[in-house]
What does this fold into?
Amino acid sequence: MKLTNKKINKTSKTNLCLKCYRNIFLKNILILKLNYCELI
It folds into this structure.
């Protein structure tokens, strides 16, 4: 039981990290697009 709990905790943490990274990535792309539009 303890082993599975640890495994689940680890995966949920990685999932959280991935979500955060994706959000940051998307925000960066949005900012880049905005800057690009201003340049044109």
In short: The radius of gyration is 17 Å.
